[in-house]
Amino acid sequence: MHDLLLYYGEEPTEQPSQEETDAEMAEWFAYDDAIKKAGVHLAGDALQPSQTATTVRVRGGEPIVTDGPFAETREVLGGFDVIDVPDLDTALDWAARCSAAKRGTVEVRPIMDLEAPPQ
To answer: Shortest CA distance to 68 belongs to which of 48, 89, 84?
Structure first.
């Protein structure tokens, strides 16, 4: 079972101190190390801030390109991991262990297997 962990949080309105940044990054690196050592990590990365996003919609056959994320919200997508775990409970456990869950939200979403036979 492959799951996508989506990490949401509020973008800072002011630059955090170096001490705050170092502490947060230490938590992320510890989590990243743990998920990789457990052998469940398949892919993942951090994302640039939401103001760097570009959104594309096609209406009437024409692309409409706008600056910014799809939705305006307080919490923005900051990164993701794809994990290979046996069940939802294990995916939820990994989500709860992530520091993003303390400051924001971790969305767990199963990845659709398009090659699996229909049930």
So the answer is: 48
